[in-house]
Amino acid sequence: MLGAPHPVLSAVAEPVDPGDPEVVAAAADLLATLRRTPATTGLAAPQIGLSWRLIAFDAARHPRSRSWAGETVLVNPRLAGAADWDEGREGCASIPGLTADVRRATRITVHGHLPGSGETVTIEADAVEARCIQHQLDHLDGLLFLDRVPGALSLHRKLHTCDA
Fold it and tell me: Structure pTM?
C-alpha cells in the first residue's frame, strides 16, 4: 500500500479496458488487498501503485453503513449524480493516523464496468457507502481527502478504527 506523498497518489489515473487480463488481475489484487486491510471500506488502484481507473469497496465493513452493493470492483467508474451534501469523518489507508471532516454528497449514483465481462453497472449508494465511493473516485483524480479539508481545525488524530 502506497502512502502519501507518493507521486502516483497525486496523478490522474488512466482509463483502462475492463476485459484486459492485466486489469482483471489488478482488480483481483485490489479486492484481496481490501480484504486484508482491516477497518478499510475501499481502495483505489493508485494506492497499490497502479495509475488506473479502478476501485474496490465494501461498505458492509463499516458499522454505520446503510446501503450495501456488496464487495464491488468497478473499472472506469464515474459519478453520475450527487445529492444531499453533509460533513462526515474520513480516514485513508494511505494517510494512517489522521482523519478529517470532509463535505460530500450523502446520496450518489455511479456508473462503471465490471472487470472481465465489461458489463456496465449502475450503483445507487447513500451514507457511508456514498462517502467511500467518492473518496475512491478522488484517488483516481489524484486527490487525497486532505485536499478537501478547509483548514487545520478539521483534522483529527485517528482514535478508533470505525472511521470511513
Answer: 0.88
